[in-house]
Amino acid sequence: MNSETAQRIHRQDYTPPPFLVDSVELDVHFNAGEVLVSSQLQLRRNPAAAAQPAPLQLDGQGLETISLAIDGTPLGADDYRCTSSTLTIDNPPDALTLTTQVRIDPDNNSSLSGLYRSKDGYFTQCEAQGFRRITWFPDRPDIMSRYQVTLHADKASLPVLLANGNPAGSGDQGNGRHWAKWEDPFAKPCYLFALVAARLDVLRDEFTTSSGRSVQLAVFVEPGKLDQCAHAVDALQRAMRWDEEVFGLECDLDHYMIVAVGDFNMGAMENKGLNVFNTKYVLARADTATDADYQNIDRVVAHEYFHNWTGNRVTCRDWFQLSLKEGLTVYRDQEFGADMHSRAVTRIREVRALRAMQFPEDAGPMAHPVRPDSYIEINNFYTSTVYDKGAEVVRMIETLIGKEAFRRGMDLYFERHDGQAVTCDDFVAAMADASGVDLTQFKRWYDQAGTPHLWASGHYDEQARTYTLTLSQSLLASATAANAEALQSPLHTPFHIPVAVGLNGAHGEDMPLMIAGEGSAAGSGRTTRVLSLTEFEQQFVFEELPAAPVVSLLRDFSAPVILDFSWSDEELAHLLAHDSDPFNRWEAGQRLASRLILAAAEDLSVGRPAYWPQSFVEAAARLLEHASDDPAFAAEALTLPGEATLAEEMTVVDPSALHDARNGLRRFVAEQLGNALLHCYTTHADDAPYQATPAAAGRRALRNVCLSYLGELHSDEARALAMRQFESADNMTDQFAALATLAQDDCQERVLALASFYERWHDEALVVDKWLSVQAASRLPDTLAVVRGLLEHPAFDLRNPNKVYALLNTFGNNHVRFHAADGSGYHFLATQIGELDRLNPQVAARLARRFDRWRKFDEPRQQQASFALEKLHSLAGLSPDVREIVGRALEH
Ligand code: TRP
Ligand code: ZN
């Protein structure tokens, strides 16, 4: 489809499909230089469709049609109309067998959508609309069919032949070829179709479900990588058990397969019984993968497994409902992560990511509701909003109705909709019906883009012993503008926001939470209460308080909003030291740091020196002192907010002042607390060999934060320390952390470490990705030149998404270097996006998102960015994918 014909699709235009497909029989022949796909579809008119008999329309892309027949009779030229993307049959019978044969060319499919060739064989990716690149089909998720698939291929080069479901026969065909047949017992939408024909090694295991059924597990990987599969298998088994225990959901399959492939656009794909994974989320060995990698593997393996119920058994009616499966499944994988690791640290990391990615998205040109209203290219809407804000929305429902009611809601959702393709409304209805809570107003979270602002103020009345909390909300960033406009606009209705609140006493103890008019029973025993904010402004009066409290608001980040409350620095220090809610302890530290960095950035940008108060150092010293209580938490608390997150709080971003301010504070802490940092580093060393446990990972995280602070000193001692760790580490976490610290420092050790790292790891693709990204993330002034040079390095490959993400996306996230004043970063990235678009539009469009916030910068930078974007936009043959992203960036 070229850009001129790319159409905008609207959610409101949904109509049920005129025809259903009951069954699909595919025969796929892998020949030299081509693949032939024969398909037999059993179709019938949809009883639920409009009374007007509509024609039968099928989707196709890049198909060379060889033959077409209905009920065995070849179609004549007048019986159908065919374009490059549609096959229309005007007067079909009400029930029919449609037989088609097409030729496709997976060897030259660099988009990694549909059927494509990777190093070790052939793989598929059908979500969202890749199935149409394999055969003619009504490619939409509300058509669910039973599939039988037979693969035929050369036995020596493609020994492994897989498809969804259960094996239903295999054998030799003579002349070196073999075949295998698979049958999926569950009806599914075509986006969950998968097949694999490749040369792969396999690790097999087993899982016995709670009802005693045995499930055969298999993980397929590139030959020679079996020693990197154990963690993925373990994660899968833990996820299967967890879903039984927490949600009562059992695996419904006899065979559950995971296939890892090095060329993959995203993280992984939940194809029924045959998940296809980016190698990045399968392969791990202590010396090649970091603690973060291990945890990501846990999460992605669990995520895809959880989709089997939330996505596959109950799927989406249309792609606007994407968050129905993605938001809910992210929520589920987050809960799994919280149960496997530290709940508090897991939550902190998720909120950090949300603020770094989703908040900017929601404030930029690609802002869209969790359930979008329209799109041009659906692949552009696999976003942090749909996934992560969608998960926050599910979490808010859980917070509002309570854990038990939430579980009843899930049960009811499956009871009502198993085997169906449904909408977000259906999910919310199940939650409302199971809990008795009216969620009508809450649904605004699905329909309205933008991050709401929440303003809070408090007043303690000594006489009455009451604390009055006033909460107000608006989508607009300033309180005064909010009140004026909000009250006038009938469209601007308030959100239903759960605000979890605690009150801290002078010694950090939780004070009683009794709300006026409720009677003491309601609040006396609880240390946190969830207030329902449903109006633009509401007051809550807490009674029987002997002294003024320090209020702890939005505990555990109970809603994805921007909270404004004027805590004094002393109050924040108090919360950081004492709040019983660990999330808000962390949050208080982040607020303190943000305040200082933003003020310093302002100073630096007008040529004034930055000011760093001793009180911040004292707070950091206390964290170090108590770090052994919870090293992973201490590591998070010592990590300053990132530049992209901080930039959102500036009216006009000065990236170099911001960068210098943030690093200035890091350096100040290092100068003041050098000994304490070194002590913490030393005392948390592990004598035991590497273990991927949360406790050991927490100690490593803490030590590596200390090391990175020490690196700010640019001293010989710090460099030697990092070099020693780099050379002696028995695991990738420590080795890479040392490399990352050195990569920020212009010294000889940096050069040596980078060279020796590549020398050692050049054969491990995923480790080479780390080597690329650590260079692209460097703050050193020659980073763009280095990145340019790496484009020509044998380690880089524009056709491989992991390499593109590692080098180019990392550079795009390098705030100070990408936003260089002379526009060099912009022009570089725009050129690369244009090149990549010809190979892989999906990944090019993802890369183009790095331009989202260009309007937040000063005039000269804006000029450079718009120039680069205009040039990209005007490229002949630009994909609809990139065109949509760049078009929006230029419009808004
Ligand atoms: N559904 C996948 C998930 O689990 C997302 C995904 C994988 C995807 N590959 C894709 C989406 C390619 C679009 C295109 O989140
Ligand atoms: Zn998903």
From TrEMBL:
Record organism: Accumulibacter regalis
EC code: 3.4.11.2
Limits of the Peptidase M1 membrane alanine aminopeptidase domain: 232-445
Record keyword Plastid present: no
Domain Peptidase M1 alanyl aminopeptidase Ig-like fold, first and last residues per copy: 450-565
Database matches in Pfam families: DUF3458, DUF3458_C, Peptidase_M1, Peptidase_M1_N
Keyword set includes Zinc: yes
Occurrences of domain Peptidase M1 alanyl aminopeptidase C-terminal (ranges): 569-891
GO molecular-function terms, A-Z: alanyl aminopeptidase activity; metallopeptidase activity; zinc ion binding
Keywords: Aminopeptidase, Hydrolase, Metal-binding, Metalloprotease, Protease, Zinc
Protein name as it appears in the record: Aminopeptidase N
A GO BP entry: proteolysis
All copies of domain Aminopeptidase N-like N-terminal, residue ranges: 88-192
NCBIfam families tied to this protein: pepN_proteo
Reactions this protein catalyses: Release of an N-terminal amino acid, Xaa-|-Yaa- from a peptide, amide or arylamide. Xaa is preferably Ala, but may be most amino acids including Pro (slow action). When a terminal hydrophobic residue is followed by a prolyl residue, the two may be released as an intact Xaa-Pro dipeptide
Class of enzymatic activity (EC top level): hydrolase
Cofactor: Zn(2+)
Family the entry assigns: Belongs to the peptidase M1 family.
